């Protein structure tokens, strides 16, 4: 299992803009994972001009970050309409909640107590598609649980709903299906992928299916296509210096056998932790998947240790292992880029915005926004994260709008 002593998660935020332009329609939010007592923050990034990004807002999370952990643990979660933003305080095992209705001020009672203990390798968060429930995985106590998300006067307030439920070993990556009926959880160290039945936000006490991933390795970040006719396609990253990943079918909430796959990407890219379907692939099964490489110290061609991403076609749920395009940040941008995040994929008309951040040898975190049109990848803008440098590495990201 590959991990790093400093880790940061990033997520995305919608701020209610109505312009159809690329520049005004994509946002990134870092979980700055500050390990100092009560000092953790989340930083909102947005486009500030032609080929420039900047800080829009800093959110005080009111707890302590871990400053370390898994590359692929999703430590923030944003409702699809961005009504609520949730930020994991991993070291203090709490969840901060912010409401769009109050211009993303922390809600009363925030941060909320975790259902388990995350002070080991991270806490994973995932909001349901309808914005009614939040699911969490706690790597310290090896447990999962769920919360009801408040509305109206209690918007974004979290109320424990189910759990703690024992869930294997060192869990943190997770995903909830589009119909809200199945929770998928990676057991990274045990090499298993699990599914749990969910009813009105309540997670079943035992797993519905428990499939070995030993054929492909340690399952990292999880994504799943929209459930159609009771079925969906599941993909996970794989946490070693390689270009392998795992796939499985999901039928009526039950996982099929996990298959091993090898991406035919440039040989510098390695540690394929975080695959993300784009909107078309998610909704129809045919489109693109963005394969996020976390890297592990860089090194260039032949090392399988560079951070970056590849873009692969998906047809009827099947991933083509030959990329349409790829970006190696170590070779293309800077040989100081040691580690990278998963890609935060934002569909914006004919273009796609991709957020990714890179940690340098001096513990500087460079947040970068890419613009993808067809098979052409260009850097739109980048800047250092002012609230994370010197404390930990930024190693996970998502973006809004998503899908």
Q: What is the CATH homology-level superfamily? A: YVTN repeat-like/Quinoprotein amine dehydrogenase
Low-confidence region ranges = 1-23
> CATH top level?
Mainly Beta
Mean pLDDT: 88
The computed structural class is mainly beta
Which fold does the CATH topology refer to? Methylamine Dehydrogenase, Chain H
- Straight-line N-to-C gap: 30 Å
Rounded to the nearest angstrom, the radius of gyration is: 19 Å
> What percentage of amino acids are in beta strands?
over 45%
In the CATH hierarchy, what is the architecture at level 2? Answer: 7 Propeller
Number of strands: 33
Map the helices and strands.
Elements (H helix, E strand, L loop, with lengths): L8 E3 L15 E5 L9 E9 L2 E9 L15 E3 L5 E6 L4 E6 L5 E2 L5 E2 L9 E5 L5 E6 L4 E7 L8 E9 L7 E3 L5 E6 L4 E8 L2 E2 L5 E4 L6 E6 L6 E8 L5 E8 L2 E2 L3 E4 L9 E6 L1 H6 L2 E7 L14 E8 L2 E2 L5 E4 H4 L4 E4 L3 E5 L2 E10 L4 E9 L2 E9 L19
Antiparallel strand pairs: 1-2, 2-3, 3-4, 5-6, 6-7, 7-8, 7-9, 10-11, 11-12, 12-13, 14-15, 15-16, 16-17, 16-18, 19-20, 20-21, 21-22, 21-23, 24-25, 25-26, 26-27, 26-28, 29-31, 30-31, 31-32, 32-33
Walkthrough of the structure:
With 403 residues, the chain is mostly beta strands. The chain has a single domain, classed as Methylamine Dehydrogenase, Chain H, CATH 2.130.10.10. It has two helices and 33 strands. The radius of gyration is 19 Å and the shape is globular. The N terminus is likely disordered.
List the main descriptive attributes of the protein structure presented here.
403 residues; 2 helices; single chain; five-stranded antiparallel beta sheet; Methylamine Dehydrogenase, Chain H; mainly beta; 46% strand
């Amino acid at each position: 299992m590959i991990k790093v002593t400093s880790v940061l998660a990033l997520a995305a935020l919608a701020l209610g803009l109505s312009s159809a332009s690329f520049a005004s329609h994509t946002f990134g939010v870092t979980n700055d994972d500050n390990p100092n007592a009560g000092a953790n923050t989340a930083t909102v990034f947005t486009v500030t001009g032609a080929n420039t990004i900047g800080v829009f807002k800093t959110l005080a999370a009111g707890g302590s970050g871990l400053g370390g952990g898994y590359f692929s643990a999703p430590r923030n979660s944003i409702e699809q309409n961005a009504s609520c933003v949730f930020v994991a305080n991993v070291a203090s095992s709490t969840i901060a909640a912010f409401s769009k209705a109050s211009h993303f001020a922390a809600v009363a009672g925030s941060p909320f107590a975790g259902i388990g203990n995350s002070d080991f390798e991270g806490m994973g968060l995932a909001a349901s598609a309808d914005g009614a429930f939040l699911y969490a995985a706690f790597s310290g106590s090896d447990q999962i649980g769920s919360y009801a998300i408040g509305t109206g006067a209690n918007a974004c307030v979290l109320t424990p709903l189910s759990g703690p439920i024992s869930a294997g070993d060192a869990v943190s990556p997770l995903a909830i299906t589009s119909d809200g009926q199945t929770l998928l959880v990676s057991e990274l160290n045990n090499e298993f992928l699990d599914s749990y039945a969910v009813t009105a936000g309540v997670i079943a006490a035992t797993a519905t299916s428990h499939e070995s991933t030993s054929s492909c390795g340690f399952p990292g970040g999880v994504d799943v296509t929209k459930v159609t006719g009771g079925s969906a396609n599941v993909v996970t990253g794989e946490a070693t210096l390689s270009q392998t990943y795992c796939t499985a079918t999901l039928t009526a909430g039950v996982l099929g056998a996990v298959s091993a796959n090898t991406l035919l990407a440039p040989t510098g890219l390695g540690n394929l932790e975080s695959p993300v379907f784009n909107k078309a692939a998610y909704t129809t099964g045919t489109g693109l998947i963005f394969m996020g490489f976390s890297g592990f110290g860089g090194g260039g061609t032949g090392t399988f240790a560079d951070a970056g991403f590849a873009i692969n076609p998906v047809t009827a749920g099947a991933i083509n292992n030959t990329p349409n395009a790829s970006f190696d940040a170590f070779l293309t941008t800077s040989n100081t880029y040691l580690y990278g995040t998963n890609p935060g994929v934002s569909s914006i008309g004919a273009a796609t915005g991709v957020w990714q951040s890179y940690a340098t040898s001096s513990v500087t975190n460079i947040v970068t926004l890419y613009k993808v049109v067809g098979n052409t990848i260009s850097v739109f803008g980048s800047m250092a994260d002012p609230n994370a440098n010197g404390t930990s590495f930024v190693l996970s990201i998502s973006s809004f709008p998503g899908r």
